[in-house]
Every structure is written in structure tokens, then in C-alpha cells.
Design a protein that fits this description.
Helix content is 17%, strand content 35%. It is α+β, with helices and mostly antiparallel strands.
Length: 142
Amino acid sequence: MEFFRRRFGIPGAIFSNYYLYRRGRTAWLVNKDIRLQDLALLQVKSIGMPLLRWLGPHLKPTSVALQLLGAHANKNIVTLTSAQLRDLVERREIKTEFAGTPGYVIVVSTSLIIGCALHLPGRLISQFPRYMFTSQTWEYVL
């Protein structure tokens, strides 16, 4: 939780209604619910939402976590045009300068939080999960 405060400016109070569980290299975020005690004896493969992954000594936030928590962030946010986002998805990387410190950033396009990317000097590398973008298109219906 300290990682999210330092990297993205997300206040710790945001996590007050969640438990944090670690299994292997992944930390999972789970809603606090008294009924979880009733499930403690079950064997489960996963629980909650993947929040962070340990990649060696580094922490990498998941795109789904940034979609949930990103509205509370106030730093290391990269806003892309629709064309830039399309390039990032198709090429997995775009080359241009961005504000913020190098490291993982929150990608936003047209005020919609897309997910996680890695910002290096002069480069932005997609960290979006493969399932997030396919050759199918979706129609937005009100």
C-alpha cells in the first residue's frame, strides 16, 4: 500500500476496506467481509483481485488495480490521445517524452483509465494484459 502512496499519490485510507493477501509473487486485494472467515477452510486457487506482482526486487501494479485505484492518483499519470493509445496497443511501445518519473505509470485516454505502462526515458512500454485488447471491436451502448 505504501508503494501506491509513493508512486501514484494514492492515500492509504483508500485501502481501509480491503485485506491484502500474498501468494507467491502476487499480492491480492480482497474486500473486508466477516463472511471470509467462513471460507477459510476451503482450498482456493485465488481470491480477490490481483494488485501487485513482485518482479525481482521491483513491484509492478496490475492494470486492473490501476483501473480501480487510479481515480485516486495524483502523480505518474500519462494521458494519451486515441492515436497514441492505438499505437501503444498495436506496437506495444511508443517513443516520445512524457512527464513524471521513470517507472510504472497509469495510462489514461479520453479520461478513461486504461491500465499500466512502463515509462523509460523517451519510451512508453505497454504492460496491458494480452486479453485486454483483441482483434474484436466493441460497440459502446448507452
